[in-house]
What we know:
Layout: H1 2-21, E1 32-38, E2 44-49, E3 51-52, E4 57-58, E5 64-70, E6 76-79, H2 82-88, E7 91-95, E8 103-107, E9 115-119, E10 125-131, E11 134-150, E12 153-164, E13 171-176
Parallel strand pairs: 1-11
Antiparallel strand pairs: 1-2, 2-5, 3-4, 5-6, 7-8, 8-9, 9-10, 10-11, 11-12, 12-13
Amino acid sequence: xxxxxxxxxxxxxxxxxxxxxxxxxxxxxxxxxxxxxxxxxxxxxxxxxxxxxxxxxxxxxxxxxxxxxxxxxxxxxxxxxxxxxxxxxxxxxxxxxxxxxxxxxxxxxxxxxxxxxxxxxxxxxxxxxxxxxxxxxxxxxxxxxxxxxxxxxxxxxxxxxxxxxxxxxxxxxxxxxx
Length: 178
């Protein structure tokens, strides 16, 4: 039994985190909702809230600003191209039922997980997502990719969600296979 515990905590647990240890962390920003990193390179997809009225409401035309943070190019920012917006990292937005001024959305490549765009009592925007069955503020996503399924479609092995419990402030985590 002790060998199994040592194997997990002493050998396997450090290797699990190793895949992400070389990834840079985007700088904090008051409008930051979350960011996505994936195997292949360190370039990062960033999702920021686009607010109006001194941060008290979301811009109705574009509530979320999505862009690349290209670490491989000295940290330059770049917009998503058409295919990235419509097939991978873009979002489908709709007004949230029973939550005036808020939006429900999903990332176009994975419509099964729905998020809610909201502003907390302190005026900070959040993307709320169920992590392990409980509402949480999504902070970051890591996608493990190994090769391609067909053509340009990546073979996603797993997705990791990192968030914060809005009631306790504790970190929450979930890993799932899409």
